[in-house]
Amino acid sequence: MFTLFKDTLVSQVVTLWKVFAKILVKADTVQYPEEQPYMFPRWRGRIILSRDPDGEERCVACNLCAVACPVDCIALQKTEDEEGRWYPEFFRINFSRCIMCGFCEEACPTNAIQLTPDFEMAEYVRQDMVWEKEDLLISGTGKYHDYSFYNVCGKKIGGKDKGEAQNEAVPVNVRSLLP
Amino acid sequence: MAKIVIDGVDYEVNPDNNLLQECLSQGLDLPYFCWHPCMGSVGACRQCAVIQYRDEDDDKGMLVMACMTPPTDGMIISIEDEQAKSFRSNVIESLMISHPHDCPVCEEGGECHLQDMTLMSGHNYRRYDKEKVTHRNQYLGPFIGHEMNRCITCYRCVRYYDDYAGGTDLSAQASHHHVYFGRHEEGVLESEFSGNLVEVCPTGVFTDRTFSENYTRKWDLQTAPSICTGCAVGCNTTPGERYGTLRRITNRYNSDVNGYFLCDRGRFGYGYSSSDQRFADPLQRKNETAEIMDDSAVQSMLDGFSSENTSVTTIGIGSPRASTEANYALRCLVGADNFFSGMSDEEFESANLILQLNKDKAFHSPSIREIEQADAILIVGEDVTNTAPRIALALRQSVRNKAMELADQSRIPRWQDAAVRELAQHDRSPLSILSGYKTRLDDVADDEIIDSIPRLASFAQAIAGSLSGKAEQIQVEDGQVAAVEKIAEQLKSAKRPLVIAGSSQGAELIKAAANIARALGESRADGAIDLCLLTPEVNSMGMAMLSTEENSLGAALEKLRSGEASKVVIVENDLYRRAPHGLVDEALEKAEQCLVIDQLPTATTAKADFVLPCTAFAEQESSYINYEGRAQLSFQVHRNHARAKSSWQWLSAATEEGIESLMHDCADAVPGLAKLCEILPDKSQFVGGMKVPRQSHRYSGRTAMKSHLGVHEPKQAVDSQSVMSFSMEGISSQKDASILASSWSPQWNSNQSISKFQSEVNGELKQGHTGKLVMERNAEGAYLEVSVSEDSSAELQLSRAHQIFGSDELSSRSSVIKQRMVGSYLGISEEDARSKRIRQGDSIAIVGVEASLSACIRSSIKNGSAVIYCDETMDSHSLPRSINISKSNNEVQTGIKGLIISDLMDEDN
Ligand code: SF4
Ligand code: SF4
Ligand code: SF4
Ligand code: SF4
Ligand code: FES
To answer: Is residue B389 lining ligand 4, measured as CB closer than 6 Å?
Structure first.
C-alpha cells in the first residue's frame, strides 16, 4: 500500500513541481525565422566551394570528396588551364541526397569544400536541390583563411614557377656536375 | 623446388627465381620499386629488404635485398621482423624527402605504386623540413606527360625504355640527388612503345596525356576486358569510361599474348570513338541531303536487303576490322555465296594463303610468349614494328636468349639483369631481316638484306634451297651466297628457330617463308617449326575464315558493275581503302541500293543510300581472331547513347538472345570456327545469376552524375545479354580473374596488383582466360612455288611501307594519333634522287598516277627500288609494281616531318 502511494502520488506531485518550477525560467525556443539562432562555425550545413587567398578557385578536382561521400552525391570533372592549374569543369552536389556528414570536407586536401552553418536549404521542387559549381562557389576563403594548396604543391602553374613553392630549391641544372 | 621458411611458415619456392618474386608468387606483401616481373632485378631501391637467418638458432639475422637473393633450400627469412620493417620505412622516407605535395593533382593518385608502398612500409609523417630538390619538365610529345619532381630514381623507366624496348632517346642525366630522367632535349619520345612508361614508372612522372586531358580516377572508371583492334596481334586491354566517353586504355595482362605491354597505337588510338563525327542516327540519302530514319523505316529497309524477301541479288561485303559476329551476321543475311571479302585482293590472296598454312601441321603459329623464346629469327619482308608492333617488342627479347644462355653457362641467375647484360655485352641471338628498306629493328639485327621484293623472294627461296634439297633451288648473286649460307646455318643450329612473314608485301614472300620453315622442319624430329604469319587487321583471320576463296572484293565489285547483283550491304568498311577508286566508283554507281553500316563518315558512306550507325569496339561485345588463330572475346565497356547498335544487332534477327546464340550458330555453321564458343565465360561460376560488375566498389558520384538531367535517379541499366553488369553490384572480378578488367587488391591499387591474380609471377591468371586457338592443324602441305619475276617495265621497283600511326584506319582518325602521322612519301636511294634532282622532302609525282608524295631519301635503299607509303587519301591499289617518277611542283599537304627512320639522309646532302 505504501509502495503504491509512493509510486503514484509522490511521483505526480514531484513532476508537477518540476513543471511549474520552469514557469519562471527563460524559454529556449526562439521565434524562428524572425529570430535567428546562433550557429556554431563547425556546424555541418550547406556545402560551399571556397577560394584561396588570391581569389582563385581552391578546388583542384582531385575527386577525393566524391569518393569519400557515402551517398555518392558529388560528381565533378577535372579540367586544366593553359598553364597547368587543375580545376573542376563542373562540380555538382545533389543536396537531396546529401546527409551533411562532412566526410567531403574531411577528405579535401585543399580546404576547398567546406560545410557551413547555413541549414536553410528546403525547396519546393526537388530538382532545385541539385547545385552546380556556380551555386557552390563563394568569393571568400571560408573557414580557413591562409591555406593555398598550389603554394605547397610542386606543380608549376601560372604565376608560380618550379622551385617557388614552400620549401623548394631552385630547379636543378642537369648539365651541371657540381654538388 | 626449394623449401624455405618465411616468418615461421613453410613454403615451396622455385630456386631459379629471386626471393622477392617468390614471395609475391606466394601472395605475400613485400614492398618493391625497381624490380619488374619482366625486367629482373638490379637492387637499386633497397625497398625489398628482408631478414635472413643463418639457421634456427640465429635470432639476429642479417638484412638482405629479397630481389637480389636466390632462395636456397632450408633458407629462413622474415618479412615482418621489426628491423626489416624499420629499414624499409626509413628507405622510403629518404626516397620521399623531395617528393612534392602533388597527390591531389597527380594523374597517378589512387593507382600509385608509390602511395601503396609508402603505406605498406609504414612511413606516414614527413620529418624532413629542408628544401626539396625540384626539376623542370620536358615536352615529350602528344602521348606522354612529364612531371619530374615525382621521381624516386628507381631507374625503371630507362631500364624499360632503353634496355627492354630498345629506345635511344630517354636517359638518366645529372648525378647524385639531382638525377634526371628525360630526353637530351625536349621532343617527341621516339619509341613506339613509349606508352608503357606510364605503367612501368611506379610514380606519376610519366603520365598518359590523353587520359590527363579527360582525367578520372581509376576507381571512377567503368571498365571491362577488351581486345585492341589496332592490328592482328589482339592485345588485351582495359578501356575505361566515365560520363559516356572513353578516357584511356591500359594494358590487361594476358600471359600468352601481350603480357605487361602494349604499343602506342593500341594505347593512344582510341580517340575516334568519342569523335563528334560519329554517326548518331540511321540516315537515308535523298538527293543531296541525308534524312534521319525512324525505326520502322529502318526495319522495312533492312527487310528489303534480306535474301528471303527480294528477287534481285544482294551481296554483302564484310570487313577485316569488324568482329566475327558482324561478318557472320552479314553472311547470314545475304547467304554464304553472296558474302564477299572486304580486304583488298592482294591482301585476300595472302590471307587465304596464311589460312591454308595455319592449318598445316608442319608449322606452329607462335604466341608472343613463344616468340620471346626463339633463338634464331628470320623476318621475311615484314616491317613488324609498323604492322604488328607488339611483336617487334617481343623480338627484342628473343635476341636476348643468347645472353640468357651465356648467363646459364656462367651460373648467373637470369633475373640478375645488370650482370647478365654486362656479361653478354652485344652478343645477341641472330635476327636476320629481309626487307625493302631499313626497319626499326635494324639495331638488333644481325644481317639486313635490303633489296626489291622479287629479289628478296629469290633470296628467301635460296635459303630454303640451302636448307633442303627438296626445296626448289634458286641461284642468287655471288655476293649473296655467303649470306644465304650463314642465315640457313643459324636457323638450322638454333634450338627454337622462328620465321616471320606477313601479307604486307604480297604472297610470294609468304610462300618463300613457308618453304624455309618447311625445309627447316625436315631435318628436325621435334615437331612443328614456328612460322609467324602476320595479317594486317584485327580480324583478318576471322574474315578470311568466313568467306570462300573465290569471293574476293574484286569479284564483288565486278558483280555490281555487271548488274549481276544490284543491292549491296557493306559492313564497317571503306572500300576506297581496299580497291582502285575507279572500280569502286563504278560499282557503287551501278548498285541500285547501297547500305553501309559504319561508325564514322568515309568515302564509302558518302556514296551510300542508307547509313546505319554502329558501335565502336568498346560499346559492343564481340570476338576477334588474331594472327595465330586465337579467338578472343571483347566485352562491352559502356553503352552508346545515340541510336548506334553493333553491326550484328542491325543485321541479325536473333538480337534478343544476345551474342551467345549468334556465336553458337556461327560455330555450327562455319567448319573452321567450331571452337569459337569455348571463349564464352563459364556461366556456372556465377552464383545465383549474379553478374560481374563493370564499376569498382568505390565508384563515386552515382547519385549526382545524372542529377542535372533529372533528380530522380534512373534505374541501373540492365545488361541482359552479358555476364557483366553496368553497376557496382555482383561478384567482383577481384574474386575471379577470368573476367578481370582492371586489377585491384587490398593495399595494391596500382596495376602491380596483377601478381595477386597470377598463378605465379609471370604465370597464367588464376582462373585464366587466354583466348582459344580455333585452328585445327592437320593438313599435309608441300613446297610452294615462288614467283621471283621482276616487273621491269619501269625504273623503280616498289615495296610498301606501313606506319604504326596512320596505316590503321580507325586509330588514325584519333586526334592525338594524327599529330604523329606523316603524309604519303616515296623512299628512294641517294643516287636515284640525285639523278632526278630531287632533294629531301621535295614533292614527287609518279608518272601515270595522280598523287603527290614527299621524297624521303634513305641511305640504305637499293638503287632502282623505292618504298612507298600511301596515306588514306591515295588510290594505292591502282599503283603498278614498278614506277617512273619525276620532281613535281605541287605542294605536299603533310610532309614527312616526324618520320622516325634511322637511315634518313641529311637534308644538306
Ligand atoms: S576534395 Fe576538395 S579539391 Fe578535391 S575535388 Fe573535392 S572539393 Fe575539390
Ligand atoms: S606519384 Fe604517387 S605519391 Fe607522388 S604525387 Fe603522384 S600520386 Fe602522390
Ligand atoms: S621516372 Fe619513374 S621509373 Fe624513372 S626513375 Fe623516376 S620513378 Fe623510377
Ligand atoms: S600490337 Fe596491335 S593489338 Fe597490340 S596494342 Fe599494338 S595495335 Fe593493339
Ligand atoms: S626491388 Fe629490391 S632493391 Fe628495388
So the answer is: yes
